[in-house]
Amino acid sequence: MSRSASRSDDDAAPAAPIVLRRVTSATQIFDALRNEIVALKLPPGTALADRSLVERFGVSRTPVREALIRLAEIGLVDVRPQSGTFVSRVPVNAIPEAVLVRKALEGVTVEKAAERGAPARMSRIDAAIARQKAAAAAGDNDGFHEADEGFHAAIADLSGHPGIWVLLAQTKVQIDRARRLTLPVLGRMDHVISEHEVIRARIAQGDGPGARAAMMHHLDAVIPDVDELKGRFPQYFC
């Protein structure tokens, strides 16, 4: 046997190092505050003082300021010189454009998903609907919203274009804030689940046009009446 053939595993070339994504303190703070702002746990107008955030997260001021800058860039906080940093109001004029983007892109993903949606590939969609039903039964608004996000993300993944949902998650952030005001409405969760089940059925049937039509109907119903909400919650909108 040749020397090369008899080399032990120890002589083999070293494996490539595993590269792990490093999550910075600024990113963790950004994610936490973003989620709380979208969920209205930090409602519009709430002051975000550096000192309080430093104490809360146990970090220096640098990552806190980095996180606040990123939140300002996506329109979730206002930095007012000499006054401080505050959770922004929901800009009414930003919602119609976000609606158009969402409907255009989700029309594509749901139709593509129907082209690939064999029953055996529906597990993530079914799991998301099951989580929504459990959250609705428990009156868990946060859990319901998370499961709703999972439903639409699963469709994008099945379509073969998961990056579309990543883009939409950034685009629709103001819509999400307004929608949180509609979830407590009696029966709203049940309507959303029913609409999701229709979309799921059209995908499983391979009915692309039907899936798109069901998604458009769903988004027309899900996107809130901003004028009505602004009348009820004038302090939240600008």
Automatic annotation (TrEMBL):
<keyword id="KW-0804">Transcription</keyword>
<dbReference type="InterPro" id="IPR000524">
    <property type="entry name" value="Tscrpt_reg_HTH_GntR"/>
</dbReference>
<dbReference type="Pfam" id="PF07729">
    <property type="entry name" value="FCD"/>
</dbReference>
<dbReference type="InterPro" id="IPR036388">
    <property type="entry name" value="WH-like_DNA-bd_sf"/>
</dbReference>
<dbReference type="InterPro" id="IPR008920">
    <property type="entry name" value="TF_FadR/GntR_C"/>
</dbReference>
<dbReference type="GO" id="GO:0003677">
    <property type="term" value="F:DNA binding"/>
</dbReference>
<keyword id="KW-0238">DNA-binding</keyword>
<keyword id="KW-0805">Transcription regulation</keyword>
<dbReference type="InterPro" id="IPR036390">
    <property type="entry name" value="WH_DNA-bd_sf"/>
</dbReference>
<dbReference type="InterPro" id="IPR011711">
    <property type="entry name" value="GntR_C"/>
</dbReference>
<dbReference type="GO" id="GO:0003700">
    <property type="term" value="F:DNA-binding transcription factor activity"/>
</dbReference>
<feature type="domain" description="HTH gntR-type">
    <location>
        <begin position="23"/>
        <end position="90"/>
    </location>
</feature>
<protein>
    <submittedName>
        <fullName>DNA-binding transcriptional regulator, GntR family</fullName>
    </submittedName>
</protein>
<dbReference type="Pfam" id="PF00392">
    <property type="entry name" value="GntR"/>
</dbReference>
